[in-house]
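Postdoc handover notes: sequence design on the structure in folder B. Input tokens:
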């Protein structure tokens, strides 16, 4: 039997928990009663929970801290939920299906965008009969300004989910359409963007647009095409702005040189917000994607993914400081996770991109790498599959922090040529009017409802 003091302590703890929960519930009810004027959805592509944890340590260590105690900007948001990411036909999802779920309120197949699950991938005729309306279209119809920002190609799966309907995510350019798609009237994603009423779209992917199409868009809309940061900054706010800062995806943060003409994700986010604030009598919707977190993981190079994650966190921080918190709901989430893990009992503050160095018998740092059964050390970070795997006996891992991390299952020459996505839940962080609806464990398509409800729109 526990003693009286133990029971008293337990009851006090339960009471405090109840009071805290009631207070949080009351604040959420109050926040939910007010509608948002603006909604910003941040998607860290591939930013699973293990990536968030590692981003936290990485960012803290960049500031000279051990790292584990660091708090990323969105981790201070008062509402958090777990999100189930599967597609209707895949246990482990892709970005097209997950982004479509968030923008239509319905889960779909992998590889398709804003097309219902009855349509098969790459089948234009079936897609035409199963097109889904999008949150981006609803925003335009209700007089909201719309912005799209990504470090990936602006025609890539996540940014394209704002405006495009297609049964094949890889139909980014007209030249990539199949004969069946052309015969049945499907349009390339780039063509759909130029026909969409956006206020600002910033990212990579110029190679997906023909010069003739871009010239026609400028003539028809009076819009500005920016190819550099300076051109973005100098653009008039009186007309749409399309920024295409690279032929394909934008350059990794770690691989940019000092003379780079590409803006950072934070700079693009602030540029978009400045334009949207000026051009939005009725408020705005902004999607911001950290698209290259995912690409770094696919290469099995955690250093690339973490630097992109840090840039993503910086963009969230910039947005939080630039908007009216009483009018703007900000959501931060991932579309899916990666097979990425933190392991090996490294000592506190161990360099996150280094070898796993443990503690001695007294619990103090040993100063020596932990050895596996084969006598070799290993890195703290690793992947279940990917380019870092070896067939046969492994050697000592590279001490170059930008090299591919070690992996278990080789995928370089099989059906998949890179590290793969993972199927576990991802986190959703929320603040602002309507954010109290973010709680518990949610289906990914319910993020659409959270945004609809925040604006006070009726669900159809």
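Designed sequence:
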């Amino acid at each position: 039997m526990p003693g009286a003091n133990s029971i008293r302590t337990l009851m006090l703890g339960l009471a405090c928990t109840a009071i805290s929960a009631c207070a949080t519930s009351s604040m959420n009810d109050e926040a939910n009663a007010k509608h948002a004027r603006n909604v910003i959805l941040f998607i860290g592509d591939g930013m699973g929970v293990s990536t968030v944890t590692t981003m936290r340590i990485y960012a803290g260590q960049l500031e000279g801290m051990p790292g584990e105690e660091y708090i990323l900007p969105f981790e201070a948001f008062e509402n958090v939920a777990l999100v189930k990411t599967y597609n209707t036909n895949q246990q482990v999802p892709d970005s097209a299906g997950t982004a479509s779920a968030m923008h239509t309120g319905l889960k779909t197949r992998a590889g398709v965008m804003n097309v219902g699950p009855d349509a098969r991938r790459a089948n234009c005729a079936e897609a035409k009969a199963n097109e889904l309306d999008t949150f981006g279209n609803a925003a335009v119809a209700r007089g909201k300004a719309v912005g799209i920002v990504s470090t990936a190609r602006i025609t890539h799966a996540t940014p394209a989910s704002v405006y495009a309907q297609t049964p094949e995510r890889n139909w980014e350019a007209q030249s990539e359409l199949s004969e069946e798609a052309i015969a049945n009237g499907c349009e390339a994603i780039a063509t759909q963007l130029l026909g969409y009423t956006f206020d600002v779209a910033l990212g990579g992917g110029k190679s997906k647009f023909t010069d003739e199409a871009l010239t026609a868009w400028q003539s028809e809309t009076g819009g500005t095409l920016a190819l550099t940061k300076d051109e973005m900054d100098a653009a008039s706010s009186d007309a749409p702005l399309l920024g295409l800062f690279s032929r394909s995806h934008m350059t990794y943060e770690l691989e940019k040189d000092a003379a780079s003409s590409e803006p950072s994700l934070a700079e693009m986010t602030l540029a978009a917000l400045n334009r949207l604030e000026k051009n939005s009598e009725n408020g705005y919707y902004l999607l911001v994607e950290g698209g290259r977190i995912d690409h770094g993981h696919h290469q099995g190079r955690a250093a690339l993914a973490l630097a992109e994650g840090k840039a993503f966190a910086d963009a969230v921080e910039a947005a939080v400081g630039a908007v009216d918190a009483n009018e703007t709901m900000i959501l931060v989430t991932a579309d899916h996770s990666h097979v990425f893990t933190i392991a090996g009992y490294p000592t506190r503050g161990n360099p996150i991109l280094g070898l796993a160095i443990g503690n001695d018998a007294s619990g103090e740092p040993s100063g020596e790498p932990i050895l596996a059964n084969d006598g070799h050390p290993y890195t703290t970070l690793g992947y279940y599959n990917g380019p870092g795997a070896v067939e046969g006996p492994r050697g000592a891992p590279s001490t170059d922090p930008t090299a591919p991390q070690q992996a278990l299952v080789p995928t370089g020459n099989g059906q998949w040529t890179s590290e793969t996505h993972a199927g576990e839940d991802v986190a959703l962080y929320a603040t602002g009017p309507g954010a109290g609806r973010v709680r518990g464990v949610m289906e990914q398509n319910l993020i659409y409802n959270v945004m609809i409800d925040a604006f006070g729109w009726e669900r159809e």
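Context for whoever picks this up: The first helix runs from residue 4 to 33. Don't rerun without checking with the PI first.
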